[in-house]
Amino acid sequence: MRSHEVDYRILGESMQIVEVELDPGETVIAEAGSMNYMEQGIGFETRMGDGSQPDQGLFGKLFSAGKRMLTGESLFMTHFSNAGDGKAKVAFAAPYPGTIMPVDLAQVGGSLYCQKDAFLCAALGTKVDVAFSRRIGSGLFGGEGFILQHLKGDGMAFMQAGGTLVRKELNNETLRVDTGCLVGFSEGIDYDIEMVKGLKSMLFGGEGLWLATLQGSGTVWLQSLPFSRLADRILALAPKAGGSSQGES
User: Fold this and answer.
1) Looking at residue 137, what is its pLDDT?
2) Taking the CB of the first residue and of the last residue of the chain, which one, N or C, has fewer CB atoms within 10 A?
3) E-state strands within the chain
4) Which residues 6+ apart lie within 8 Å of 32 measured at CB?
């Protein structure tokens, strides 16, 4: 199934919104709860699966939805369609400050791997699947690096990145990054998880026990502030329970 050809624009700087413009009959799929607003003529329906294979039977839909549960996502996706006579817009945003990353899948070989919580929305026809690290043992202990989402298609897809988005082009090179800082990568990149070497580095380095190793030729997208890192810092600095109230009398 060919993906619908949608137009879009990115609004904002540090807390961005992607506004997708749909022609009559066009549809965009999105994670539940990511919609901000929609204009007259846009309708939505919650469905099991991404709709990339309309002739897929019930068992196939259940199998695909079950794999999505492994990434911590909902069994269902929301389909937003333009049922009106003219163009209409629908907008989506990430649940935390950061950058929205638009990718034309046709320009990256029709395939993109991304972190399990990076996918935001995409043109109908995009297949949202699950991919596993080739070395399952290291992936199991690598936490965030084990399960990835695999997007396939020839249309626009949008990912969410925390903080600043960095794009790097590898030409038969190796890049090591914190597992949480990886947003996604294109075909041609071999991905694995490795443990930090050295007992002192593991105990006092503060960088975590695991690194993602990316090797090959292709495009890699990184984020400067993973949501997990932000949440950990907020919890560490939050006042401890049991203290006296300092509110106004």
Assistant:
1) 45
2) C
3) 7-11, 17-22, 27-30, 35-38, 42-48, 76-82, 88-93, 98-104, 111-115, 119-123, 127-132, 147-152, 156-162, 165-178, 182-186, 189-195, 210-223
4) 46, 74, 76, 77, 78
Mention every residue, 6+ apart, whose C-beta is less than 8 A from residue 38.
44, 80, 88, 89, 90, 91
Q: Three-class SS of residue 172?
A: strand
Angstrom distance (rounded) from CA 243 to CA 232:
21
Instruction: Answer left, alpha or beta for residue 247, where phi above 0 means left and psi between -120 and 50 means alpha.
Output: beta
Count CB-CB contacts under 10 A for residue 243: 7
3-state secondary structure of 199: helix
For residue 244, the one-letter residue type is S
Instruction: Report residue 95's pLDDT band, with 50, 70 and 90 as the boundaries.
Output: confident
Query: What mean pLDDT, rounded, does the chain reach?
Result: 80
| Cα separation, 44 vs 29, whole angstroms | 9
User: Under CATH, which number does the domain 7-236 receive?
Assistant: 3.60.160.10
pTM over 0.90: no
Tens digits of residue pLDDT in 161-184: 988 899 999 999 999 988 888 999
Listed by start position, the domains of the chain span 7-236
Cβ neighbours of residue 33 under 8 Å, at least 6 residues apart?
A: 95
